[in-house]
Amino acid sequence: MYDLALLIGRFQPVHSGHVALLTHALAQARRVLVVAGSAHQARTPRNPFTWQERAAMLRAAVPAADAQRLQVVPVRDYYDQPRWSAAVRAAAAPLAGPGARVALVGHFKDASSSYLDWFPDWQLVSLPRQGDMDATRVRDAWLGAAPGALESALAPLLPELPPATLALLREMADTPAYAALQQEWRMLREYRAAWACAPYPPVFVTVDALLRCRGQVLLIRRAQAPGKGLLALPGGFIEQRETLWQSCLRELAEETHCVLPEAALRAALRDVAVFDHPERSQRGRVISHVHCFDLGDEAALPHVRGGDDASEAQWLDVARLPQLEDQFHDDHFHILDHFLQLNPKPDGL
Fold first, then answer.
1. Which long-range contacts (CB under 8 A, 24 or more apart) does 176-180 make?
2. Looking at residue 108, what is its pLDDT?
């Protein structure tokens, strides 16, 4: 018997395979810690449920006595392996004291399961795939349901859906959030279908501008899916005959009408960083080059207004950003965190 068993996943949503892994973890240890990944994000077709909703689904999927031995904690997608691993260890530390026997329960599904190798000091309890269900099938059936046809869309999956999961899927189908998720889901499917005949999966190159002035940063509200209504850095795809620098200046001007002389922006440039995690964008493989500018604390805030793909452009106080984390598109909050250190790093980093 282990002192603690860990189960790591996104659980978007919880299905029978997850319940089988959780049940095995509960049988192996006195206490079980479930790490709910992709936490604190805006609702998207890939991550439609909050970590609190996923925690409730997990607890409801096991007997009450077992649920008392279960703790669920949220961990962000840092898009940074050492930082993410440190965050998982920090979450486990209060339950895994010195000398504790810790098991990591899971199964190797694909490349996304490589995290199971990142904790060599924990005993890996590797299980075969628990059934043939996966969360993507559930999300596609749920989000792809035609009006009035939710029950028929979910019918083939009913044996694999715990009652609490099914109840949440039905409840959310009556909310505006569901309609918005369906719109994004359809847009993303059409987007990928447009590239289906390419000889190789496309890799997109984008630019983003992080402009800081007087302790504030310039952000937009996205006008179109994906991420319609969410906060983002001004940016977009480079054009065929542009350099990254030229594209960055063009997107900044088009989306915010922030017209600063090129010389002023070049003098304010502090850093350029590449963000290339394979899962950073739901549109596919998107690599962004983020230009970080700082106009200082003496310059006046440039006048801005939304344009092009932005419904709004606004200056926001850096101190407010951590409270807005779940309102950001894709990994843009983490980009801001990279440059502005919005969240404290776990011990050891």
1. 177/43, 180/43, 180/228, 180/229
2. 63
